Amino acid sequence: MNKKNIYIVIPFLFLFFSCGAYFNQPLKTSKARLGENTTNNKILDGVIPVTPLVVGVYKFRDQTGQYKLVENGSSWSTAITQGGTSILLKSLEDSKWFTPIERENVSNLLNERQIIRSTRQEYSKDNVDKTTTIPPLLFAGILLEGGVVSYDSNIITGGSGARYFGAGGSAQYRQDRITVYLRAVSTSNGQILKTVYTSKTILSQGISANLFRYVSLKRLLEVETGVTRNEPTQLAVKEAIDKAVETLIVEGIVDGLWVPQGAEEVVNSVKEKYLKEKQEAESTALLDRKLEDKRGKSAVSVSGGTYHIAGDYSNSIGKLGGAFGHKFYFKNPALNLNFGIGYFQLENEKAFKEDFGSFDINLEYNILPYENLTPFMYTGIGGVSDIDFNNPYFKFQYGIGIEFLPIKTFGIKLFGEQNILFNDKLDGFENGKRDDYYWRLGVGLNFYIGKPFESVKSVIFE
Q1: Are 232 and 326 found together in one domain?
Q2: Using CA atoms, how far apart are residues 332 and 369, in angstroms rounded to an integer?
Q3: Contact 60/85 with Cβ under 8 angstroms?
Q4: How far is 404 from 411, CA to CA, in rounded Å?
Q5: Is 54 within 8 Å of 141 (Cβ atoms)?
Q6: 274, 266, 294: which is closest to 406 by C-alpha?
Q7: What φ, ψ does residue 23 adopt, rounded to 5°?
Q8: Are 106 and 159 part of one and the same domain?
Q9: CA atoms of 183 and 149, how far apart (whole Å)
Q10: What are 154-183's pLDDT values in tens digits?
């Protein structure tokens, strides 16, 4: 790229990055607004209680004691809001399933009631009993306890960037995670009726671009732009608490602790939705990895590639060959046993050339069995012989590769394999102490057969 083209491309590059900064740049002050909404209660949509439950919350606060991370120095600001009780009370009120009562600052309430009683008594003249009477306080049948129990910083961090002749750009991201526990306690006997916990990730992203270049003698051009987005921690806490309240209501309905309007029909509908969501949650590991078997119980495989002999002759020539195989998965979708047969040719320039057939038995391990892109490794034993089966030899082999699934039940793989014989006779010439071996580099297709396993559990995070 010549100098003229660089000056044409650079403005477009910075225009692209600057758009992100411009459209997110606050150009004027904003007015106060209603608080942002978080996720809606999908399971409880349209489900209302027969009678709202009176609940009390004494405290629901940050139990992590963690402070904000700063690059330089130290900070005494907490990483999580200390107003968890207020957020929980709002969530309980919005759910329509509970009647929350004041307990966090109950001493203030009692003092105010005492002031009311004393004032009425002092200024009453006729009927003292009626004027000094105050309605009794509501008492809670259930207490809600818990809090934000963890704040995990930087569970994922990463980025990318490039620079060429003083012009470049970069992108960075970071993900944190909070966890909330909530439990319902019966005030009549102290029994813990139900305990639930939820988690929410907090995403931070940053994009920047810059240019640092001498445009002429003693003239330096320096340009920089960028934009950063940080998900508000308070909204993440609110969403986690909202989800905890919803889960508490749903599990209470399923277990018969409280009853919705609509009786059995509504209970079954709620239970069906909840079991579906719970199954999805159980099949999702940390970092939002979906633990879903995409491959099935067996597969037919075809592959082709080049074969290179490493024997007693020099100047090996790569020759084409092919193989056909069938693999059977164990109950663990990461592990399978496969059988294969192949046909190929080995050649050394002006010294050796022969056609061969092979039979292999391999134990294969998929490192990320639930991902669309997964590395794999395998090892096994087998045999190789000329086409007339006059000289069969035993061997063992091992290999590594990577497989990509563009759609379920179909995979494309790239692999490399070494086949080591137990003797030095493959090329018909014995020389030295080293046994003969050959390399196989190829590409293949996997066609998966059979219904995927119903019981899916992580073999990576367990």
Answers
A1: no
A2: 9
A3: yes
A4: 5
A5: yes
A6: 294
A7: -75, -10
A8: yes
A9: 13
A10: 888 888 888 888 888 899 988 899 999 999
455, part of any domain: no
Distance from C-alpha of 296 to C-alpha of 454, rounded to nearest angstrom: 10
Short-list 284, 242, 282, 235, CA closest to 44 = 242
- What per-residue confidence (pLDDT) applies to 41? 60
Computed from CA positions of residues 275, 278, 283, 289, in that sequence, does the dihedral angle turn out positive or negative?
Answer: positive
pLDDT tens figures, 381-408: 999 998 888 888 999 999 999 999 998 8
Q: What are phi and psi of 313, to 5 degrees?
A: -105, 155
| Chain centroid offset of residue 154 CA | 14
- For residue 431 the two structure tokens come to 């020389």
pLDDT digits (tens, 9 = 90+) for 110-149: 999 999 888 888 777 665 555 567 888 889 999 999 999 9
Cβ atoms 288, 83 nearer than 8 A: no
3 state DSSP class of 244: helix
Are 151 and 271 in the same domain?
yes
Distance CA 384, CA 395 (A): 7
Does 241 lie in the same domain as 305? no
Instruction: Note the helical H segments in 158-232.
Output: none
CA distances from 360 to 188, 303, 347 (A): 69, 14, 21
Token couple for 300: 């037919």
The tokens for 321 are 């060959």
